[in-house]
């Protein structure tokens, strides 16, 4: 995505799933993040990136969600088997035998969203295996990437860029719906991204 012109077609593709369905949803409540499995130095980097990223989107970050305490949960492991020590992992994710599935698929990361009654994001769980391809990732770059990927329901992995940041900021315009399955939403986002570049 880096350097890609964010026109309506490109934006529509970012939210179109393999089955052809479209979903663009943003957080419907303040984000209350918690990070597991990082040393203090990297932890501070991720906390800073999360706050900066959502501040750019003009969306609040809070210390605790009244319903869930933490609603954006980031889990960092060196091997997927470490997830077996997470209490009630099956209930938390709704995915039975998640560590075994991720190991079998050779995955580097896995992310899932939960939604509220209006379709907005109410929780995001992100799991990252730092024992594989992500081992060489720069903490700052990875923190920015994880933040952007958790901000909207992107249909595929995205690469941080100023253009992508513009799409996220546009999607958080309070005039727009918190969630939609209509591909024409990409036209409205593209218009706002274009207006940002002209401002």
Can you describe this structure?
The protein has 199 residues and is of the alpha/beta class. It has a single domain (25-194), classed as Chitobiase, domain 2. It is 37% helix and 15% strand. It contains seven helices and six strands, in the order H-E-E-H-E-H-H-E-E-H-H-E-H. Helix 2 (40-56) links the parallel strand 2 and strand 3. The model has no long low-confidence stretch (mean pLDDT 94).
Q: Which terms summarize this structure?
A:
PAS domain-containing protein; alpha/beta; 7 helices; four-stranded mixed sheet; two-stranded antiparallel ribbon; 199 residues; Chitobiase, domain 2; 37% helix; 6 strands
Outline of this structure?
This is PAS domain-containing protein. The chain has 199 residues and is of the alpha/beta class.
Structural class: alpha/beta
- The total beta strand count reads 6
Overall pLDDT score? 94
Element string (H = helix, E = strand) = HEEHEHHEEHHEH
Strand content: 15-25%
What percentage of residues falls in helices of 4 or more residues? Answer: 25-40%
Give, in spatial order, the strands making up the sheet with the most strands: 2-3-5-4
Protein name: PAS domain-containing protein
């Amino acid at each position: 995505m880096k350097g890609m012109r964010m026109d309506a077609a490109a934006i529509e593709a970012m939210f179109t799933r393999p089955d052809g369905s479209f979903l663009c949803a943003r957080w419907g409540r303040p984000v209350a993040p918690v990070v597991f499995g990082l040393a203090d130095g990297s932890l501070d980097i991720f906390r800073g990136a999360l706050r900066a990223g959502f501040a750019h989107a003009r969306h609040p970050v809070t210390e605790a969600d009244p319903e869930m305490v933490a609603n954006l949960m980031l889990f960092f492991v060196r091997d997927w088997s470490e997830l077996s020590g997470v209490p009630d992992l099956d209930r938390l994710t709704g995915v039975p035998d998640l560590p075994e599935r991720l190991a079998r698929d050779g995955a580097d990361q896995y992310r899932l969203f939960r939604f509220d009654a209006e379709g907005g994001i109410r929780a995001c769980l992100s799991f990252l295996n730092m024992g594989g391809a992500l081992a060489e990732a720069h903490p700052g770059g990875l923190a920015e990437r994880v933040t952007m990927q958790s901000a909207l329901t992107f249909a595929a992995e995205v690469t941080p860029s100023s253009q992508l940041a513009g799409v996220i900021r546009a999607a958080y315009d309070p005039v727009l719906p918190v969630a939609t399955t209509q591909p024409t939403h990409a036209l409205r986002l593209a218009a706002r991204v274009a207006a940002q570049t002209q401002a």
